[in-house]
Amino acid sequence: MTKSALITGITGQDGAYLARLLLDKGYKVHGLVARRSSDSRWRLREMGVEADIVYLDGDMADACSVQRAVIQSAPDEVYNLAAQSFVAASWNQPVTTGIVDGLGVTHLLEAIRQFSPHTRFYQASTSEMFGLIQAEQQDENTPFYPRSPYGVAKLYGHWITVNYRESFNLHASSGILFNHESPLRGIEFVTRKVTDAAARIKQGKQQELALGNIDAKRDWGFAGDYVEAMWLMLQQDKPDDFVVATGVTTTVREMCRIAFDHVGLNYRDYVKIDPAFFRPAEVEVLLGNPAKAQRVLGWKPKTDLDTLIRMMMDADMKRVAKE
Predict the structure, then answer these.
(1) pTM (whole model) above 0.85
(2) Closest by alpha carbon to 153, among 170, 135, 128?
(3) Is 54 helix (H, G, I), strand (E, B) or coil?
(4) What are the catalytic residues?
(5) Environment class of residue 181 by beta-carbon count within 10 Å: exposed (0-12), middle (13-18) or buried (19+)?
(6) What's the rounded Cα separation, in Å, for the pair 83 and 62?
(7) pLDDT one-digit tens code per residue, 140-161
C-alpha cells in the first residue's frame, strides 16, 4: 500500500532532498506551500521532482490551513521542515520567527492529534538550541542554552513535540540537526556565501568577500545524508529525539580555505572581516555527538566537508558562468 507523506517547508533545501528520497521509496508526497509571487519551487526542479508532488496551499502561521492540509493529505508521516531558518534574520524578525518556528509546530501537532492521531511526526530541531554550549560535545542529554530568537523559537517547537508525544501518545520525534549544507542552500547562509563568492571572484565578477567571525566552529554535513536520518526516525517502533551530526568541528576560516583552494585562490587575499556580520550573541562552537543515531537508527554521514564544499563549488562555478 502506498504511503502518504506531508512535508512542510518542501521548497527549502531539506524539503527538496527529502521529497526525492520519499518519492524514490514509493511515497505519495504532499507539500505545504505558502502563496508567494516569486518562484519558490526551483530546488524541486533542480532535483527533478517538481511535477511529482501534490501541492497544498497553507501557512504555518494559519492553523486552519494547516488542519486542512493534514485532512487533505491523510498522511502516514508528516515532516515539519517549515521555518524561518536564517539566524541573523531572526534578530530582525523575532516575532515572525517565534510564530512560524514555535507556534506553527503546535498548529501542526494539534491538527494531527485531532484529525490523524496515527500519523508519525518529525520535527526539525536544531543545534542552535545548544547555543552557549554546556558540554564540549553535544548529545541528546546536553542542556539547551539558545542564543538567538531562532534558537529560542526552535526550542519551543522541540519541547512542544516532546509534550504532545508524552501527553497524547503521538509518534512524534525530533531530529536535532547540526549544520547541513548542499548546492541548494540559500545564498544568505555562510557556506553558500563563501562558495558563491569564491566562484565570482575566480571569474572576475566580485572583488572580495565580507564575513564576520571566521573562527566560529561548526559541525557541517551534507543535507542529502541528513534527510535519510529524518526518514529513519519515523520507521522506528518508538518515537524519540536524535542528534544528527558528523562529530567533527571545523572553523569558517578552514571552510573558506577549502573553497578558495578548489579554484586556485588564497582566501587570505579576498576575505575581509566586517563587524556588521557578527551576531549580537555569538555561538562560538557547535559539535554534535551522533552516537545514538548511529546505534539506534544505523545512520552515519557519508559525505565529508571537503567533498561537500567541492560539490558546492562546482555547482556555483557553473551557475556563475551562465550569468
Answers:
(1) yes
(2) 128
(3) strand
(4) 126, 128, 150
(5) buried
(6) 14
(7) 999 999 999 999 999 999 999 9
